[in-house]
Amino acid sequence: MSLDERDFGHMRRALELAQLGQGAVEPNPMVGCVVAHGDRVVGEGYHQQYGGPHAEVHALAAAGDAAQGATLYVSLEPCCHHGQTPPCTEAIRAAGVARVVAAMRDPFPLVDGQGIADLQAAGVAVEFGLCEDEARELNAPFVKLITRSCPWFIAKWAMTLDGRIATRAGDSKWISSEASRAVAHQLRGRVDAIMIGRGTALADDPLLTARPAGVRSPVRIVLDTTAQLPLDSQLVRTAGQIDTLVAVSMEADRGRCQALAQAGCEVFSLAASTPELRLQELIEELAGRQMTNILVEGGPTLLGSMFDAGLIDEVHAFIAPKLIGGVFAKGPMAGAGRALIDEAAALRCVEIRQIGDDVYVTGRTQTRTT
After folding, report:
1. Backbone φ, ψ for residue 84 (5° rounding)
2. What positions carry a catalytic annotation?
3. Model pLDDT, residue 370
4. How far apart are the C-alpha atoms of 361 and 176, rounded to whole Å?
5. Is pTM, for the whole model, over 0.85?
6. What is the pLDDT of residue 367?
7. Sheet hosting strand 40-46, strand order edge to edge
8. Which residues contact 149 (CB under 8 A, 6 or more apart)?
């Protein structure tokens, strides 16, 4: 059966629904579903929270008996295995759905084409690939975690028009407006973790929480090779209430590490011998914990190292109409950087909007992970 504009419309709606689960479903993917007879929608649903019913189950429940002989549009291949919930393919067959249109295959090894095969074996007509690019962009963090065992890293900073994130004296409060900071807190409230380097922890004494709280409570991660994070810092003083991971090297003072642990921090020792290898070791650990989205808030040393290693997937930059100047005032990224403009990392999916007097720029790196 050929696809028509009606099919596109229903799939676009499924993708809209999927995004409603952002921040609540990870490490699962965001999935939306529409059940329809021609133009008439009889059921809608989306994956609402991790461990809860999948999008197809919600949509089929809404459709009830009207699902018989209908077409089911779903933004990701239906699952066919017993996980925290029963297989969606069973629910689809039981409901008497005649046709399934899926945007993309699920890269999870226990699905990856088997959901489609199961439905076809049961006599359900299956088509996939409709709005596939949009579906892949939506779930790029999930796909990266599954296929590359690496979280999706979101770099965020606020800077002046002349590219400074702090004055030569280290003062940075506040470069961006209150409205911009509210947007940044919304971003914090949907990620698994917020990561900073020791320099930022010492200079800013941040709390690293989403205010007001979002759908997730992110783990706070500090890369602190020598375990110098002050015991009276906000991060350590609140470690008993908010998960705080301090990544140190094997050479870190054991007494300092013990004091941080007694204060409630998780002290994670990295065995690698170089900063680059320690960063990779930490990333492997975070992927093993199924962390999907990690917000990197700096400072320039950490962001520069991640940029040089090709680890930054997404950028959120708040640009204030202010000038600081000064050769010793820091920019958002240090590291080696690129030698030639032709080697610069251009962004795609770029969005630019104004928040008060600030300009907010978001985009994804050109390297596709999907």
Report:
1. -75, -15
2. 56
3. 44
4. 13
5. yes
6. 59
7. 40-46, 32-37, 71-74, 99-102, 125-128
8. 284, 287, 288
